[in-house]
Amino acid sequence: MSDRLKLRALTGLALGALLAAPSMAHATTPADTLVMAKNIDDMISLDPAECYELTGVEVDANIYDRLVRNDPKDATKLVGGVADSWTVSPDGKTMTFKLHPGLTFTSGKPVTAEDAAFSLSRVIKLDKSPAFLISQLGWTKDNVDQMVKAVDPATLQITIGPNYASTLVLALMSSIVGSVVEKAVAMEHDQGGDLGNAWLKTHSAGSGPFALKSWKANESVVLDANPTYREGAPPLKRVIIRHVPEPAAQRLLIEKGDADVARDLSPDLVAAVAGNKDIKIVASPQAALHYVGINVKAAPLNNPKVRLALHYLVDYQGMADSFLKGQFQVHQTFWPSGFWAALDKNPFTFDPAKAKQLLTEAGYPNGFDITLDASNSSPYMTMAQAIQSSMAQGGVKVTILPGEQKSVITKFRARQHQLLLIYWGPDYMDPHSNADSFARNTDNSDTPATKPLAWRNSWLIPEISKRTEAAVEERDGVKREAMYKDLQQTLLDDSPFIIMFQEVKQTAERSNLQNFIVGPTQDVVYYGYAKK
Amino acid sequence: MTFVIGRFIPVDPVLAIVGDHATQSTYEKTRLSIGLDRPIPEQYLIYLNKLIHGDLGTSVITSQPVLTDLLHFFPATLELATVATVLGVIVGVPAGVLAGATRGRWPDQIVRVVGLFGYSMPVFWMGLVGLFVFYGKLNWTAGPGRIDVGYEDVVDPKTGILLLDSALAGEWDAFRSAAAHLVLPSIILGYLSLAYIARMTRSFTIGQLSQEYATTALLKGRSFWGMVWRHAFPNILVPLVTVIGLSYATLLEGAVLTETVFAWPGLGLYITQSLFNADMNAVLGGTIVVGAVFIGINLLSDVLYRIIDPRLRLQ
Q: What is the pLDDT of residue B313?
């Protein structure tokens, strides 16, 4: 072979190897399986007494049936779950639940009131993340077994300490702590008195529409249908949630039909797939609120006029109509639209002239310098930049301090911020969930018993806190609703929160998929009705 | 060092466990249970003591012992890095020799441009474009993930290396699916490795060709390519092994961006995610693996030197 030929052969080898990607076909999703592309890196446990991350709670909502459930057709309504009906004693402190007859766990064993009582007391005894939901009912390690008990195999009775409205108690029983765990299975895997916690992190013992087959961190969650579910076997036999952290990769998967649902598409990706006839975009308003916290610890933010001025220096509609399009709607009160007792009022608009006037009255005619902490992820950075530019028009010079989400929260909880951009999702669907955090702080010391959002912004509000406490005890529904609306108005008048948006989830689904339900919170994402 | 950094990063590790809404009492209880109330030197000694006994602790974010996690995530990275490095070597070494031997002429220019591209393009972007073109448009490769959903749980994970596991089990459909998923990320990473290997090989080749023995061989009647392969190439092998070893070790650390784009559950993603959650047991475990990989590859290179270079064998 001549040198020239060898040279060509060698060049051919080098370039050929680069281009020699084999052509390989691949299957679309199986007809009896729901394949979902989602970022699931927040999952740390599937034990319902421990789990409190968005993805984990969502998965648990599908593998554990709860005492009370949110109606899939209207998530703001509560309907029976493991419990069919309930009665409240005249003093409002004792509730008696009658269990749905004939229910079985995925193991085949019957669901009894004993299991339900065990599940509630387990949450208190383990004292993990979601324990605060029901410890507020006055339940402690020592008294929970007296206050929560099975009267007979079909009857559960609970007694609460404080005078809480029974609607609130029901809302709590529809949250993750109301998940009914099979006692025998949990105790069979008890290690050193952990009530099966270590085992249940990655296994399931429930009676929901699905049972957990496997959870591989950073990879996938696989659920198998439960043929004996209370509402009948789900139409699809299996659900596979694939961890796909990159939204652009989720878009490709749904376009190619390798996923039936893509959960985390950003607005630009939604726009990119919107014209595809094989894909539909389903919008679901969420309960989560996005806001700027104002730490009122020091000047100038301790001045109410300055706080009010800042409310007029955010271009709410401008953001919602541009880079947040479709995924955020303007909302300015502390309880989200579409829920009972929400005050639908958005009085603030971007008005630099008014803001300047307020700042002048407050003694800052030339504005001031301030820092804004925000998560370095999307869309927070863009939001922070938009706020920076709109505040500049009122003379307020914002320096953005980007950080990883968890470090931003750490700083918030240490009250080391000035302004801080973050979100808040209610823990259960009762306005008390948000009022208790936005509108309660009676201990402004550095070591309070809890760290509600008002505390995190150093906002000491003994009077408002009293109203919050009175509202939760009001048993007349009409009066109670009015009390929450008044509280929302009070916080609109002056508060350290620039509440800006209510989130709207946009889910991309293949056109042949039906009844995949994405409700306003992670508790109401139901896989069990989906069919294709 | 990693331990100290981990204790001083501005993220509260308790938050990663109990979340933002838990009561102060739950928070304190968890803080005590993971030993964060103790002085840092004491925490370190406790960690070392456990380490000696083979206990790397439990990861907060996966709820699994760190060792179990590493045994799960490392094979995914090993599979990807090995295939990528093989591709990088098969293409990069001949390309580098070719470029070095034809210095300044068009084959050299092509290799240099291809190499420069590989060096300067962000791998994240290349991955996305690669997916868009080869998976989205041309249908040549499979999409993100390690295997098609239909084969999920079909193969028993003996080694964690899917190609090997499926081949051992005789599940050839699963093997094909795993291979189809591996093609694109390994070509992208292989391209990075190729760019580096080709560039270094080129400069080694140029160095050898300027030596007097090369001229002598040509004068004695050796053909040009005969001289390149028989005389110059064996001399560049020793530094080349170092280069390939380094490139391999870098890929074995886990390529977090490639893993993110391709939804590849590897070591890079695991360590990064653990770091963001201040999950220090996992970060330390991952760091130990990376350290071990570097030491292992260095040892392997040393062994290879002796095989390749007769002078070292004599010593």
A: 67
Report B:244-283 residues touching A (Cβ under 8 A): 260-263, 265, 269-270, 273, 276-278
Give yes or no for A252 touching B (CB within 8 A).
yes
Task: Determine the distance in angstroms separating the CA of B197 from the nearest CA of chain A, rounded to an integer.
Answer: 13
Nearest CA in chain A to B273: A41
Check residue B80 and give its pLDDT. Answer: 92
Q: What's the average model confidence in pLDDT over B15-24?
A: 77
* β-sheet with A148-152: strand ranges across: A83-88, A94-99, A155-159, A148-152
Which tens digit of pLDDT belongs to each residue from A494-525?
999 999 999 999 999 999 999 999 999 999 99
Per-residue pLDDT, B101? 86
Chain B closest CA to A50's CA: distance in Å?
Answer: 8
The residue ranges of chain A whose pLDDT is under 70 are 1-27
Contacts A263 to B, Cβ<8 Å: none
Distance CA B170, CA B168 (A): 5
- In this predicted model, what pLDDT tens digit does every residue of B105-154 receive, in sequence order? 898 888 889 888 888 888 888 888 999 899 988 888 888 888 888 787 77
CB within 8 Å of chain A, chain B residues 147-176: 148-150, 152-153, 176
A403 lies within 8 A of chain B by CB: yes
Looking at the complex, report in whole angstroms how far the Cα of residue B60 sits from the nearest Cα belonging to chain A: 7
For chain A, domains (ranges, CATH) are: 12-253+511-526 (3.40.190.10), 286-505 (3.10.105.10)
The CA distances from residue A33 to A62, A224, B149, in Å, are 15, 9, 9
> What domains sit in chain B, N to C, each tagged with a CATH number?
3-52 (no CATH), 69-313 (1.10.3720.10)
The crossing angle, in degrees rounded to 10, of helices B172-209 and B66-101 is 40
Contacts 24+ apart (CB under 8 A), B309-314: B309/B237, B309/B238
ipTM of the complex model: 0.82
